[in-house]
Amino acid sequence: MLPPLRIQQFLRLRLPPLRLSRRNYIANTRFSPLVPPPPSSLPKPRPARQISARTWKNVRRLIYTTGVLGTFYLADVYLNYSTFTRNIRTVTTCILIAADYKLNFNAGKDAAQLSRIHERNADRMLGLCLHNGGLYQKIGQAIAMQSAILPPIVQEKFSRFFDETPQASYKEVERVLREEFGDRFPGLSGCEIANRIFVPGSFEKRAVGSASIAQVHKAMLPTGEEVAVKIQKPWIQRQVGLDLWVFRGVTYFFSTWMFGLPLSFLTPYICERLYSETDFYNEAQNAQRTAEFISSEPTLKGRVYVPKVFNELSTKRVMVAEWIDGVGVAERQVLTGPYRDENSVGHTINTPRSISNRQGPIRRVRGVGEGYSGRNNLRIYGLGVREKDVMQTMVDVFCAQMFLFGFVHCDPHPGNILVRRLPNGKPQLVLLDHGLYITTTPKFRHQYALFWKSLFTFDNETINNIATEWGIGNSDLFASATLLKPYQGGTKEMATIVGGSKAGGPKTAYEASQQMREKVAEFIINQDQMPRELVFIGRNMRIVQAHNQNFGAPVNRLKIIANWASYALARNMKEAGLERSWGQRMRGWWEHAVFKVVVFGLDWAFWLGRVRQVVFGGVGFEEGLEQRLRAVAKEEFGVELQGESVFAG
Fold first, then answer.
1. Contact yes or no for 336/431 (Cβ under 8 A)
2. Which string of b and e fits 407-423 if b means at least 16 CB within 10 Å?
3. Which residue of 2, 179, 456, 545 has the fewest CB atoms within a 10 Å radius of its CB?
4. Are 280 and 315 in contact (CB under 8 A)?
5. Cβ(278)–Cβ(232) under 8 Å?
6. What's the DSSP call for residue 586?
7. What is the C-alpha separation between 439 and 421, in angstroms, rounded?
8. Which pLDDT belongs to residue 370?
9. Which of 306, 553, 347 is nearest to 434 (CA)?
10. For residue 492, what pLDDT is reported?
11. β-strands 304-305, 318-322: how paired?
């Protein structure tokens, strides 16, 4: 028989293990003191690991570098308006774009793949321009005017460049006023200076409009005149120098190293013109000079207006001009809506006069009349003017500047042109923002007018002679760039390339791009002889073409330009340096009359398109040209070119 103790031990082994809580387990566990291991069981001691002096040096360098870069970044963002950061962003983005094209743009890609490359990099450029703002807004606007060739998503994004940009705060506006007028009003704050110059309390703290370089506030002079106070954004003065320096470097990189195109020589002239936009003294002089020309030109007097500038109240960064109430040229539905009275403009048709008189005119109707598309069918009162009259005046004024006056407004985008109704029911264009102008010589104007006239008479010898004198090696490409469509005379090289394989041209998008690159490389053979003014004249004409196209092509723009060119060759205008003898004038007028008869046939194509558009719902002359190019791109290269207006939305 087992002893009782053994029996208990046996039973304990047979029982299932008890599930004790931690507290019970600790309470029922006997204390067992820690017994240190014997020294003989321990490993042999090893010396402590030492960090080398070189490692400590690298760690210190990392800490110092991080601290310096972090301090530099914070100082640049909060004290320097991100002047350096934004240009580092520019360089980085351009490197990504260059690498993308170098690695992926090759003959092994089909049209869809090449289109995705263009879309991807256009999106990168879009993000860069939106993020940086300032002068990059101008670049975005230039791209936006070409956005009909971009994918829908990119086109929609680029339309934002015609919207208002972020405003400077009122404190920053006060600082600019204090810096510009501090000598006249020492010891006063910006708000006190505004109350001294204008009627106290009349200077509106919130800007009525904000653009890339400046913003406009409404105020009233002690004389009772309402004025627009244009104030340069405070960060522009710090950013513009470095921005243009980076622009020079990026242009050289892409044109010379990346694509092998001789275009970097134009960069200094472009930078000079862009920098001149930041000097409001220069803008005031441009406005005054343009106003004098318009008032002296019988074909424009009363049809175009330039607001008066108050020079005594203007500085390099502040400009005070006459306030003009008008409708933006992009507000198609407001322009063409039936006219009832001034206060009814922008209101719906069923709005009582009592309400419209109390609320006043609505000159910008978001979601209804905004942009060219007029996406909403809601009827509203407007100015009751014809699109044809608006476009006729617009083309006339810029042709007169190009061919006669030699002083050309190069930034006629939708935000810089207002329309107001005259008592006779005709529209009057109001030109704003006179910062970006170019001046041309009488010789250039004569040659440019002769070049345009020769395009319509297919005088290829004269075209070649003028192109050669201007250092241009490919007159066919130059003619196409001037017309903004493939030139059908001469060698028809551009028509063949754009026409694709059906016209005997390249079979793939890559071949077409390579041929176009070769033609552009051959374009300029003498950089010293090429007129730099052509860059900004081309910008002006492209924007005017976009206006006409998005209005539905109510006028034959090409015919108007050709007539102005022929007219300028016969005109004697001493104040513009165009002096001709009596015999030269008689010969010029005779040739002008003959030319008008010759180009009369061009009207048949235009009016046929207009009749088809009105009766059968067809498209206008400019839209027809655009659609033919769009069809070729779709059929030959698989690239879908979108037709929605860039100004929509």
1. no
2. bbbbbbbbbbbbbbbee
3. 2
4. yes
5. yes
6. H
7. 31
8. 38
9. 306
10. 53
11. unpaired
For residue 472, the 8-state DSSP code is B
Cα–Cα nearest to 118, from 89, 142, 91, 154: 154
Q: What are phi and psi of 408, to 5 degrees?
A: -110, 130
**DSSP designation for 202:** -
CB 522 within 8 A of CB 473: yes
CB 319 within 8 A of CB 280: yes
Residue with tokens 């492209």: 542
Q: Which tokens belong to 54?
A: 């070189």
Could you tell me the two tokens for 435?
């910062």
| pLDDT averages per 10-residue partition of the chain, 649 residues | 54 52 55 80 81 87 91 83 84 87 77 76 81 77 55 57 75 93 91 94 91 91 95 89 84 73 79 89 95 91 94 94 92 90 87 86 54 56 92 95 92 90 94 93 90 85 90 81 66 51 55 67 78 89 87 87 87 60 71 71 64 65 53 43 35
In the block, which residue shows the tokens 């004025």?
227
- Which residues neighbour 156 within 8 Å (Cβ) at sequence distance 6 or greater? 649
| Pair of tokens at residue 552 | 């539905």
Alpha carbons 476 and 456: distance in angstroms, whole number: 14
Which letter does DSSP use for residue 447 in this model? H
DSSP 24-68: HHHHTSPP----PPPGGGSPPP-PPPPPPHHHHHHHHHHHHHHHH
pTM of the prediction? 0.75
| Contact by Cβ (8 Å): 509, 114 | yes
DSSP string over 323-380: ----EETT-HHHHHSPP--GGGTTSBTT--HHHHHHH------TTTTSSSS------B
- Alpha-carbon span 210 to 45, nearest angstrom: 74
Give the number of other CB atoms < 10 A from CB of residue 504: 11
Q: What share of the chain is helix, strand, coil (3-state, %, to 5)?
A: 55, 10, 35
Pairing of strands 304-305, 427-431: parallel
- DSSP letter for 401, please: I
User: Which amino acid, one-letter code, is at 276?
Assistant: S
| Full 3-state SS string of 525-537 | CCCCCCCCHHHHH
Angle between helices 236-252 and 267-276 (to 10 degrees): 170
Q: Count CB atoms within 10 A of the CB of residue 66.
A: 10
DSSP assignment of 77-113 equals HHHSTTHHHHHHHHHHHHHHHHHHHHHH-STTS-HHH
Do residues 384 and 339 touch, judged by C-beta distance below 8 A?
yes
For 17, residues 6+ apart whose C-beta sits below 8 A from its C-beta are none
CA distances to 12, 99, 151 from 229, in Å: 99, 45, 38
Q: 10 Å Cβ neighbour count for 481?
A: 19
Terminal CA-to-CA distance of the chain, rounded, Å? Answer: 103
Residue 301 DSSP SS3: strand
Which residue type sits at 107?
Answer: A
How far apart (Å, rounded) are the C-alpha atoms in residues 341 and 330? 21
- Strands in 304-305's sheet, in edge-to-edge order, are 304-305, 427-431, 417-421, 327-328
Of 163, 158, 131, 128, nearest to 145 by C-alpha is 158
